[in-house]
Amino acid sequence: MRLLAFIALKHLLARKRQSIVSLLGIVIGVAFFLTISSLMQGSEKDFMKRLVDNSPHITVYDEYRTPRKQPLQTLHPDAVIELRHVTPETETRGVRGYRQILDQLQATPGVRASAVLTAQAILSYAGRDISLNLNGMIPSEIRDITTIEDHMTQGGVDDLIANRDGIIVGEGLMKKENLRMGDNITLASSTGQVRTFKIVAAFRTGRANYDETEAFVDIKRVQAMTGRSNRANSIIIKLADPNAALAFSRALEARIGYKSVSWQEASEDLMSTLFIRNLIMYSVVSAVLIVAAFGIYNIISTVVMEKHRDIAILKSMGFQALDIQHIFLVQGALLGIAGCLTGLPLGMALMTALGRVRFKPPGLTDPVNMPLDWSAPQFILAGSFAFAAAVLASYLPARKAAQVQPVDILRGNT
Amino acid sequence: MTGAAKKAAQEPQGDFLLEAREVARVLEGDVPVHLVRGVSLTVKAGDFLAITGPSGSGKSSLLYLLGLLDTPSTGEVFIGGRDASMLNDDARARVRLENLGFIFQFHFLLPEFTALENVMMPMRRLGRLSDREIKARAEKLLTDLGLGDQVKKLPRQMSGGQAQRVAIARALANDPMLILADEPTGNLDTASSRNVQMILKDIAAQGNRAVVAVTHETDFAEKAGRRIHLVDGRIAENA
User: Fold this and answer.
1) How large is the ipTM?
2) Which residue, of A96, A117, A396, B26, is most buried by count of CB atoms within 10 Å of its CB?
3) What value does the mean pLDDT take over residues A62-79?
4) Chain B CB contacts of A310 below 8 Å
């Protein structure tokens, strides 16, 4: 194989200009493939991380996926029954027996769970009414189950634990209403209950709407404001393995009956969009490499055409058909390897440049860097694809070269 | 003829390096073209056989059949006592690599490689010697042919005669039992032509190998110990 590689290299070096042009195609193809792929994967990973980290992995709602069966249907499951105008039983909204469910969940290894009672409240301040989402949670569990602590700019969850009449609000709201730490604000619930809270901490997630409308308080205060004592309208769950959320939620729903939605189910449309986006991205960047592969096909076909006489001589010397095929396959492989060795650093340079670009996406208040995925699979994928494209592009001309019959060429020449 | 006698007749006779039996080559088509018609010949060590004949008489076609570059339509070719007619392409390539050396009308050196690299090529493909031994043997072959100072030159940097001598060195590289030459002096000036003729005669005279050369040059044919004259693909004269 050393001899065949030596012959292949000599062939390529004898046509420096053509070889460099086809090499450039691969270099640019690899660099673009790597850059675009890492940008897309980076943004996807960033998005998924935000999705998984900032949201519960599973949310148990105080509702059922299908209407509850009437006693008559349960009693006669095989009968033809038609019930009309069934008035649902009036019951207070909320997950019944949520404490027992929580106890069971918290006893499961790798599972963290907490009850939440969310409610709408009106903040009346300086003559203005602003709607707020009150997240009533057990203060000591907020840190375990949410990432809000990571976004604290003033104070922290400990301040809420210390002061059960405290409230954690977003900086967006504070700025909008000119509020300060320690200020007292009065909130009114939909039932008319009014309660005063003291601002003990502030957060800034960068998502403008979230920072202006979300607030965290002790769950007991929300229960009191909404008249729903000992009730929670959802249970949020974090798993040690976020990817197990879908199976876990299905098993949980089958057990407790309440609608349990995993982050995968909640984001199904987004996942589908990401899949289509990846499909389009890989099609486009692959097209660049396919065009480059045509360049390689072109040069190796030309070399084969020009080298018919040399192929005949090599065969007359005793080289076998497979030797000849390998010579031209190695030429493709050499171009592929050289293309990868040059294209990958160029791609890294492009990635570094892109990584320095800062921009402010819609909905975020802070500028962020371009998310790039620097993981090894990106480099392996780009390199492998380029190498495979180069070798495949040389396969047809190589096979054609192997089929050259020396006697046909020698008869024509002598 | 009995079966045993027929079988005995099919076995190669004596210590022939090369034997052709009733070899024929027909190019099939609307009008079949008979390149070679039932040629039989034998070549033993030390022979210098010249194949002569007018243009289109089938000289080169016969040489390609003898050199296993082409497959006979009928008949058999024995190389070193072994029937090579039925071998597949790879096995025929192996026989060429180990036993045959070719010289053509044009030197047909590989243009990207130096004289030394061209001569080393068959040895490197055979892989029986180390890199150092291969280089030493290639240098000796070139020096013996008066090209000791040309080893690093590319074919385009050499005269036709020099390039043809490099081609002879390449043909001798794997120490073949048979050298097959197709009009080896046809593209050379008189002085170079005589030089090449003498080299081929010397090769045959060494006694351990044979030379079969196609030529239409009378003085070249006269230097050969044996001569076969072809007309219309048939042996018209065997002297």
Assistant:
1) 0.89
2) A117
3) 80
4) 110-111
